[in-house]
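Following the same procedure, the fold was encoded as tokens, giving this record:
***
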Amino acid sequence: MSFSTDAWTANKALYDTIRAMPFNVALKEGSLSEDRFKHYIIQDAHYLIAFGRALAVAAAKADDPDGIVQFSEGAKVAIIVERALHADYFQRFKVTPADFESTPLSPVCHHYSNFLIATAWAEPYPVVLAALLPCFWIYAEVGRAIHAEAASPNNYQAWIDTYAGQEFHDAVAAVIATTDRVAAKASPETLKAMHHAFTRATQLEWMFWDSAWNLGDWPV
């Protein structure tokens, strides 16, 4: 089987848990409180800066020109396109640029951001892709699962539509294909590291949504 099939199967129970988390259930129902979504969207905007940096490093490490283009474009999308989604919600919920700049990264956002950047710089290309893949893939699957059952009208429809949309799913499929291609040539040691990175990123996806639900902050 491909790396992606093996990795998804190994982490399927955790994905099922993510899909049923209180944050995602409330988002689907349109009942998610404004303070929880504001916490999430501010932290996600911080996270996407780190995600974009990690994608840019992946582009620099790519093993062919197509990979350079693919992940350079991915970095652009993370910074420009998804930031536009955040800007819409910032305006709707009256989050000013000063509010964003003065809000520090939560402990989980800090951990996840540093995990991605450290992995991007320190690990070989296949491991970098394995660490980046869960954010793409889980958002796509959660987006479509919520879209299929979402209450209407829903205050968070723009978020749902973004991650359930075909354009995003096409991009995710391309990342999966590239990851499988490089995994097929990887050594057993690299494959083991890829699985570890994929699982750790999946755990951090769970932690990110849990932190948003609990309004996670630094305890000291």
About this structure: The chain has one domain: 3-213. Residues 27 and 156 are 7 Å apart (CA to CA). The chain has a mean pLDDT of 95.
